[in-house]
Design a protein that fits this description.
The complex is a heterodimer.
Chain A (H helix, E strand, L loop, with lengths): L9 E6 L4 E6 L2 H7 L2 H12 L13 E4 L14 E6 L6 E6 L3 H7 L4 E5 L6 E6 L2 E6 L8 H11 L6 E4 L2 H4 L7 E3 L3 E3 L4 H7 L2 E7 L9 H17 L1 H9 L5 H6 L16 H4 L1 H7 L1 E5 L9 E5 L9 E3 L3 H8 L7 H14 L3 H16 L18 H13 L11 H7 L8 E2 L2 E2 L9 H9 L12 H5 L12 H18 L11 H12 L5 H21 L11 H5 L14 H12 L9 H7 L2 H7 L1
Chain B lengths: L4 E5 L9 H11 L10 E5 L4 E5 L8 H5 L5 E3 L6 E3 L9 H5 L6 E3 L4 E3 L9 H5 L5 E5 L5 H14 L6
The chains are: A alpha+beta, B alpha+beta.
Chain lengths: ~600, ~160
């Protein structure tokens, strides 16, 4: 087929076992079928990974992919995915990172990087345009993420080089270790950092010096200008600009679906101390943008006094504040900024980190853990100092609570209280409390990578108007399915999800046509999205996942929400699951039927890999 | 358009989105390519700042003085530095002479890249959403510096003259 414009044309395949690096032509037909990034990653992982691959063994892969739009004028096109089998869940997983890494890879001439094997000693990958090489990283092993980025830019003598790296948490294979980039952007969820650590790969550094050609530059320019204009006046985009993602705190808490104290309830009484207005007044000192973004939602925070004086971060994001803050009962902004900093420099996912601490706090309050277990830390809900202290230990895997680095599911099992781990398939719940917003409960349950809000972010539609619809469970399956398909397109184009304020599916496809030259109508795009979602499902099916794993923690199903505006609610998961599977054309065990696979043209893929 | 207008950058307002780089290279090369942009934004991660770097239209241009080939001249209309691609030999002496490091090199044509002010309608300015780069008359350029000082001084003596 004719080459798609917008693609760089090459993919790097790096085998760490023997150090070979091969440049492969980008599989144009795969990109045409699955758009890019998430979609292409789902296909390649299913094809290339053998069943039952050990997530932390040399046979697991890290498949980094950009989309067709990266490195062009397309607004908010700055994401790169990494696709892998997750050590946290055992499922298919992918994670998206913003910042400036994705366009740089395109400028270097690559659409993606496939990492295989395990290096005999610590190395980092240095991609300097045409030249790609592995360099010794012994001197970087043990370094924090920021120090690693600084050291690499110094030794390569160029401050504009983009770096993705792991911190000590990834090296020590904490199951929720992330890969960090640009100081405070990350491939956050699912433990990609642990996989990278298991491969002895400390970092990837990239420098590109070429441009990206598009099919219709004039049309693209005019679409970009139009998008800037819409975002300039869109209220949601303006709030996002002023406050970052924490603009969502007030609405979430006011409707009683903000996960609080290990999801014991959905309403945090002290929210005002840590909401967006409080952040703006007390800690925000500047703005920071990812590449090509007309919003710039990143906020720079600075702690001026107290025990954490001098701390700077980009953040905290809404999810970080939710899981480290409300979910640990902590209303101390300075402690939360410090907690985010610890996660970012050691390379931990802030969300899972908050959730394992909230688990430990609940265990401590119930007497399951004692001061002896916590090395003297008074791990009560609401104790910000304790949050900071315990995170330091978790990040370094030291002390008796080393087991927390294994994630909440394993930790809770070892503590004899599996029901207290707020997780699905091993991945900790995001901050939206499902009892207070039922569609999100279904989203968490059916997500192919364990609980994840961005698989089908239904909260906006559910909370619209007076918010009453959020407590309905009927009709949520259709909403979840619709959002899931739309997000499969957004993530495969590798657009930032905030661009949805201005760009619906139709506009996204206009961008796609202007960049690639390939016209896609909405029906065709939805079909591609459905194929992507089914590929993800098939990967998990091959590993034995089905309805029995599409679960929520028992607390969500059996214990009525004790307080707040969603008081008395539980999640009616079973009827939602039935409806969802029916709509997806899956059987009631959640398995894609033969007919569905035939309709999607995926029978041959499934036959080849199963 | 006036020969007296110059670019002024305000690094403290820059968020590092690099839309300026994008539109600069798009305008000049028809595609996005940061290495061919006449403006570059460098993020200093450890300080949480972004510094836009481009030609400041020096009055006594060190780049012109450094060029032995007579390849650089000043546009009489805009005051922008013009590169004669026929005579530029790509020696990069001007790059070293520039006090801002604002000059780049085109790796394909092997000639230097200097801001040409887009014939009086600089696209970086047109697309900066932060007001971090502006195109203003020389006579009032950098008044922000004075304003910044005045703000500090005013805060110190707030309450009026004693």
């Amino acid at each position: 087929m004719t080459a798609l414009k917008g693609l760089a044309g090459k993919i790097l395949r790096v085998n760490l076992n023997n150090g070979t690096i091969i440049k492969e032509p980008t599989p144009q037909e795969v990109f045409a079928s699955y758009i890019g990034a998430r979609g292409v990653g789902a296909y390649l992982l299913l094809k290339e990974l053998r069943p039952a691959t050990d997530p932390l063994g040399p046979d697991n892969k890290l498949i980094f992919l950009t989309g067709p739009l990266e490195g062009t004028l397309a607004p908010g096109a700055n994401k790169i995915t990494v696709t892998f089998r997750s050590p946290l869940t055992g499922t298919y997983s992918f994670s998206l990172c913003g910042g400036h890494l994705a366009p740089e890879l395109k400028f270097a001439g690559y659409d993606g990087i496939i990492i295989e094997g395990r290096a005999p000693h610590p190395v980092y990958l240095w991609i300097d345009g045409d030249q790609a090489m592995l360099r010794d990283a012994s001197h970087l092993w043990g370094k924090l993420t920021h120090a690693t980025e600084d050291a690499i830019r110094s030794e390569l003598k160029d401050q504009s080089i983009k770096v993705a790296c792991i911190g000590p948490a990834g090296e020590k294979q904490s199951r929720f270790a992330c890969i960090q980039s640009d100081y405070h952007r990350e491939f956050g969820r699912g433990g990609a950092g642990a996989v990278m650590g298991s491969k002895n790969l400390k970092a990837i550094a990239v420098r590109g010096t070429s441009g990206v050609e598009v099919a219709d530059p004039e049309a693209l320019a005019s679409l970009a200008e139009k998008t800037y204009e819409i975002l300039g006046s869109n209220l949601k985009a303006r709030a996002r600009r002023k406050y970052g993602t924490p603009e969502m705190i007030d609405g979430t808490n006011a409707l009683g679906y903000w996960g609080t104290r290990n999801f014991s309830t959905g309403y945090f009484e002290e929210a005002e101390k840590i909401n967006a207005a409080s952040m703006e007044e007390n800690i925000f000192v500047g703005h920071m943008s990812c590449y090509a973004c007309p919003i710039a939602c990143g906020k720079v925070s600075h702690i001026k006094d107290g025990p954490y004086a001098g701390t700077y971060i980009e953040g905290p994001e809404f999810e970080s504040i939710g899981l480290l803050g409300a979910n640990c009962g902590v209303a101390d902004l300075a402690a939360l900024v410090k907690a985010v900093e610890i996660c970012d420099v050691y390379g931990l996912d802030t969300m899972s980190a908050g959730a394992v601490v909230s688990l430990a706090m609940e265990c401590y309050e119930r007497g399951i853990l004692t001061r002896k277990d916590t090395d003297g830390i008074d791990l009560r809900f609401g104790n910000g100092e304790a949050l900071v202290a315990i995170l330091q230990k978790v990040a370094q895997r030291e002390g008796l609570l080393d087991l927390l680095a294994e994630g909440s599911r394993i930790a809770a099992e070892k503590l004899g209280v599996p029901e207290l781990a707020m997780q699905v398939k091993g991945q900790e719940l995001p901050t939206y409390e499902p009892r207070g917003i039922k569609g999100m409960g279904l989203t968490y349950a059916i997500s192919p990578r364990g609980a994840h809000h961005m698989i089908a972010p239904t909260m906006g539609a559910e909370a619209a108007g007076d918010g009453g619809r959020r407590l309905e469970y009927r009709g949520k399956a259709a909403l979840v399915r619709e959002m899931q398909l739309l997000m499969a397109v957004v993530d495969s184009l590798a657009l930032c999800s905030s661009m949805r304020f201005a760009l619906g599916l139709k506009e996204q496809l206009e961008l796609y046509r202007a960049v690639t030259g390939l016209a896609l109508d909405e029906a065709a795009a939805r079909l591609k999205a459905e194929r992507i979602v089914n590929l993800e499902r098939l990967f998990n099916l091959r590993e034995g996942f089905d309805r029995k794993d599409d679960r929520l923690p028992p607390r969500m199903l059996k214990e009525p929400m004790p307080s707040g505006p969603s008081q008395g609610q539980v999640v009616e998961l079973e009827p939602m699951l039935d409806e969802y599977y029916d709509l997806m054309g899956w059987d009631r065990q959640g398995r894609p039927t033969k007919e569905k696979l035939a309709q999607l043209g995926l029978e041959h893929v499934w036959q080849e890999v199963s | 358009m006036s020969a007296t207008n110059v670019l002024v950058v305000y690094p403290e307002k820059c968020v590092g989105c690099r839309l300026c780089e994008q539109w600069c290279s798009f305008k000049h090369e028809g595609q996005v390519n940061p290495c061919k942009a006449r403006i570059r934004v460098v993020r200093v991660h450890s300080k949480y700042v972004n510094i836009p770097v481009t030609c400041m239209q020096c009055a006594k241009s060190p780049c012109i003085a450094a060029c032995r080939e007579g390849a650089l001249s000043k546009s009489p209309e805009t005051g922008a530095i013009l590169v004669n691609e026929e005579t530029c030999i790509g020696c990069r002496r001007c790059i070293r002479a520039c006090p801002y490091g604002a000059i780049g090199i085109d790796k394909d044509k092997r000639v230097v890249l200097i801001c040409d002010l887009c014939q009086g309608n600089p696209q970086c300015v047109a697309h900066c959403r932060e007001g971090a780069i502006q195109y203003v008359p020389l006579a009032v350029a950098d008044r922000g510096q004075r304003d910044a000082y005045v703000e500090v001084a005013a805060a110190e003596i707030q309450g009026g003259i004693r």
